[in-house]
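Hi everyone, sorry if this is the wrong subforum. Our group has a chain we'd like a structural model of before ordering constructs, and none of us has done structure prediction before. Sequence below.
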Amino acid sequence: MVRELERERQTNQVPETAPAANPVFFRTYSRRTAAGRETWEQVCDRTLQGLIKLGKLNTQEAALLNRMQRQMKSLPSGRWLWVGGTEWLEKPENFSGAYNCTSTNLVDWGAFGLMMDLAMMGCGTGAVIEPEYISQLPIIRNRLHIAMQGEVGSTPAIERREQTEVDVASDRVTIHVGDSRQGWVKSYQTLLELSSDERFAGEIAVFVDISDVRASGETLKGFGGVANPVKLPELYQRCGAILNKAVGRQLNSVECCLLIDEAAVTIVA
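Answer:
Right subforum, don't worry. Here is the predicted structure as tokens:
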């Protein structure tokens, strides 16, 4: 469903032969600003300035791109239409958000976390799960007993922790999920790491506190768009069920795919 489509700001630049163009544009590429949704002209301005800076383009090159884009003869990638020219993309930790696709060898828990991080930046992620790679994953040695705590959006915005914090007390672990992309990723990766953590004797009581996560519909100020944590509460127990079935051995390729899928479902819910 297109959110708050501002029909009065649509122009006649889109050909009549493309009736779905405006809904797709306002849903996918028009960012929210203090004045409302970006127009196509504003998106052209933003993305072109980003390309000029990134590519160190000269006047002639910039003029060519400007003409081709405004005449809709040649456009930047969909990723660039969304994040190109934004302050968010200027930060090194967000550079990958400008890429359409990535590929990662699944050799450790960090690779799972990286894939979730990339996906939350809007970057397509692919995993190489051939035996030579997944054979490097650790053996699952701990059974996880997972319980959820708190409710999404229950902590006032000013009091929310941004980064995930993990408290360990004997065989009890509490994961306080941070209200950020990095916070979600760390909570997911931490759960995977606990399944093979040699500090524990085989059984771990895991409490996942989601109180600090912002509620559905709240604005994502950096990346843009709105929060959608609808599936987040289900992520941990579903991953735990997959991991618990593999206690005493390494994950197989299907189980690796399922763990990746659980993160993906959470992101695109």
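For your construct planning: The chain has nine helices and eight strands. The chain has three domains: 7-86, 97-132, 138-268.
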